[in-house]
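**Sequence with structure:**
===
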Amino acid sequence: MEARKVLVKENDEALIACPCCNITKKLSVEIYKQNSKRDLRFKCGCGNVFYLCLEYRKNYRKTVKLLGKSTNLSNHRESQDIIIKNISLGGVGFCPFAEHKIRQNDRLQVSFLLNDFNNTNINTDVTVRTVDNDYVGCEFNNTRKIKEEIGFYFLG
């Protein structure tokens, strides 16, 4: 059985919904955060048992598969094709198609089309926060503009 991802709010509370009866419960997860525990087994009042994965993030992160392009503005202006793996109001994660020279704290220009009704074009500067082999995690530099465009995408 696959674990359901649950976003933990800033006050260390999570809203848990039973997949069987849809009853929702607010749960304090402070003790799990202190113990660095993310995976939980949860038993609902209806008797249903399911698994949760606690996500300690500021923003919801949506898994996607979108083609895009990145250009490194920091050093060598290397431009390459990428596949966007996930997106949130705060940033984006992607994998380059080929070997790359991207390093933590590099500034990149990233562009891609959302798979929404309008095929919204996202073209923005980001700062690289993590590089793990072929995965690059970035934070948006201009969050005000992005929040509008991507906020509607999450609603759809």
Q: What stands out?
A: The chain has two domains: 4-55, 61-155. The radius of gyration is 18 Å.
